[in-house]
Specification:
The complex is a heterodimer of chains A (238) and B (414). With 238 residues, chain A is mainly α. Chain A has helices spanning 3-19, 22-45, 51-69, 71-79, 81-85, 92-113, 116-124, 129-156, 160-179, 189-195, 197-205, 211-233. In chain A, 45% of the residues are buried. Chain B has 414 residues and is of the alpha/beta class. Classes of the chains: A mainly alpha (238), B alpha/beta (414).
Chain lengths: 238, 414
């Protein structure tokens, strides 16, 4: 693996995102949805906090992350460029991580643009910047987990729609597990709570950056990227 | 002996139940341009994909530049420039961006990138379209970008999967020239099903069919491996009372064969494509000598009616058709061993297309010989007509039919 090659892949991938309407459409849709949902709330509760903004993020990401990640590998397979890409002297990790970073950057741009909200709010009332920044760090972590799931789904199929649906089901499942906790057998509850994307983010949205939550997200990302890499590699298995 | 650049041993690949490759072996020495021939689905692309480390073989080994494709995948990929089938390249980039991307993946030093891209853009005729998105380009230009991409890092080995598909005739010639030029110092494997292309560019040809290697040799050798000349003759042995050729058709053919085989240069005679009252024979000959005169003379001396004769020149196309058709043999054919088989299968194969493959140089030659044969045949016909006079009507009808055949042949030879 080499950093240079990984960044080359990421740069090329990012070029594709911004050369096509994909990135613009996804980012605008994300901004409209999250802005509308947040500002409907914030004027009702009359409090300078981003808690409600963060609260809707796990749900929004279920739609937007797969939309970003679905094309990552599926499109290469569909158009046949895999034959080019994987006969270049690149490690599979270069490709997987490069693509992951590119998708993260697109998501990052979307998230960055929402900084307009805390800036606006901080003019209207006292904003807890510490909690806000912690929240943003958590947001990117959670986004990474969603993108990881999406990248893994994209490595399994050559159809972008299928990649989207698998990623959607996967991340929605992990989200739902947390919401359905009260209905689950008590013995399973701690485990289910741990695997839920949502419960971990709830801590962060409150402004608490816990190392357990960070470890959780990093392990989701690591696991998904590993499986994606294995899926690419399986082509070379005997 | 030059160094062996590519070595493939018993390579096999299954896609689920489909056996794409059933154990092929070959070697490519440095500096050779190897043509990979085969019908669609024969396993050309699969072999190339294995050599370029895109996928692993099910069994067997492939070594590129002394490195096993499985164990030293990265080194192998560094040593190879690959143009995949259909030139899949990122359509949203301009060709300049794409070549820069390849430079950076190939880790070409920064200070050389500009120079390299310029050189290859020039060689591949891309200078005018460097700023054009690849998606907007015609197939031909896309193909050139693919070629430039494959050669960017100056690899010792080039693997080109159908490099001229989608190009117009001018571009095809250009690309062939380019490949020939590259082939002087690099090892090149190219796949195609355009046969003239192989003859034009390759020093050696491998034909695979149905996942097996069926022939291996230079284009000329392969064409020569077919008995180089064959003659199709149609003879009415003049079954008059008292003729020595009376009797069953089998013995008749044998009798004719014995006479014909005594001609110097004739290797074998085989019955093929006869008509009601005439025997069709396929005469295979060694060497380049034109035996039509001898055959005609032999017919005259024995009192046969020579109704038609056609000389047939074997081409690579024949070899390809014969080896990759349904009757393809299972054993790899090395030059020498193609000869006996040529006899076995020529009969069935050739009956469809007798003429058409005669080269221009021979045309005049042939006309002369035909004229000679015609004279002889006419004389015979006069005799036959006389005989017909006191024969039943059925025979007359036959003779008329034969005449018609002859007219047809004459028409053809014109």
């Amino acid at each position: 693996m080499s950093v240079g090659k990984t960044l080359t892949i990421a740069r090329r991938e990012l070029g594709t995102y911004f050369n096509s309407p994909v990135a613009y459409i996804v980012i605008s849709a994300y901004l409209v949805a999250s802005g509308a949902l947040y500002f409907l709330q914030v004027f009702l509760i009359k409090e300078a906090t981003l808690r409600d903004f963060f609260a809707v993020q796990p749900l929004l990401f279920i739609f937007f992350a797969p939309a970003i990640s679905m094309r990552l590998l599926a499109e290469e397979k569909r158009s046949g460029t895999v034959a080019m890409l994987f006969t270049l002297p690149l490690d599979d990790w270069d490709v997987v991580i490069g693509k992951f970073l590119a998708a993260m950057s697109v998501m990052g741009v979307g998230v960055l643009l929402t900084l307009a909200y805390p800036i606006t709010i901080s003019r209207l009332g006292p904003l807890d910047w510490g909690a806000t920044i912690a929240g943003y760090v958590g947001l990117l972590m959670m986004g990474g987990a969603y993108i990881g799931i999406g990248l893994m789904a994209s490595s399994w199929t050559k159809n972008q729609i299928v990649a989207f649906i698998i990623a959607f089901i996967g991340s929605f499942g992990l989200y739902l597990v947390g919401k359905l906790l009260p209905l689950m057998p008590a013995s399973l509850a701690p485990m289910l709570r741990y695997i839920s994307l949502d419960t971990h983010f709830a801590n962060i949205a409150r402004g608490v950056l816990d190392s357990r939550d960070i470890v959780y997200y990093l392990s989701i990302i690591g696991g998904c990227l590993f499986l994606a890499k294995q899926s690419l590699d399986s082509r070379r298995w005997r | 002996m030059p160094q062996t650049m590519i070595e493939v041993k018993d390579l096999a690949k299954d896609y689920g139940l489909v056996k794409a490759l059933r154990g092929i072996s070959f070697e490519v020495p440095a500096g050779e341009v190897l043509g990979f021939l085969g019908p669609n689905g024969a396993g050309k692309t699969t072999t190339m994909k294995i050599l370029t480390c895109f996928m692993a073989p099910t069994a067997g080994t492939a070594t590129v530049n002394g490195k096993n494709v499985l164990d030293h995948s990265l080194e192998v990929r560094r040593a190879i420039g690959y143009l995949p089938e259909n030139t899949p390249i990122y359509t949203d980039m301009t060709s300049l961006e794409f070549l820069q991307f390849i430079c950076s993946v190939r880790e070409i030093p920064h200070n050389q990138r500009k120079k390299r891209i310029r050189e290859l853009a020039e060689v591949c005729g891309l200078l005018d379209v460097l700023a054009k998105p690849i998606g907007d380009m015609s197939k031909g230009y896309r193909q050139r970008v693919g070629l430039a991409q494959a050669m960017l890092h100056d690899p010792p080995i080039l693997i080109l999967d159908e490099p001229t598909s989608g190009l117009d005739p001018n571009q095809i010639v250009e690309v062939r020239e380019l490949i020939k030029e590259i082939g002087k110092e690099k090892t090149v494997i190219l796949s195609t099903h355009i046969l003239p292309e192989v003859q034009a560019t390759c020093g050696r040809v491998i034909i695979i069919a149905d996942g097996k290697l069926v022939a291996d040799g230079s284009p000329d050798q392969l064409a020569a491996g077919q008995s180089k000349n064959s003659y199709r003759v149609l003879i009415d042995p003049d079954k008059n009372e008292g003729s020595p050729y009376r009797g069953g058709n089998g013995s008749l053919v044998r009798a004719l064969s014995v006479k014909l085989e005594s001609i110097k240069g004739v290797k074998s005679v085989k019955e093929s494509g006869g008509e009601d009252d005439a025997i069709g024979l396929l005469i295979s000959a060694d060497g380049d000598a034109d035996l039509r005169r001898e055959i005609a003379r032999c017919a005259r001396d024995n009192g046969w009616l020579l109704l038609g004769m056609q000389r047939h020149h074997a081409t690579l196309e024949d070899v390809f058709r014969r080896l990759t058709g349904k009757k393809a043999s299972s054993a790899p054919t090395k030059l020498e061993s193609t000869k006996p088989k040529a006899e076995d299968e020529d009969g069935e194969k050739d009956s469809g297309a007798v003429s058409a493959s005669e080269s221009k140089a021979d045309e005049k030659d042939e006309r002369d010989a035909d004229a000679e044969a015609d004279v002889k045949v006419d004389a015979d016909k006069a005799d036959a007509d006389k005989a017909d006079a006191d024969k039943p009507d059925a025979d007359k009808a036959d003779a008329e039919e034969d005449e018609a055949v002859e007219e047809e042949k004459k028409e053809k030879s014109k």
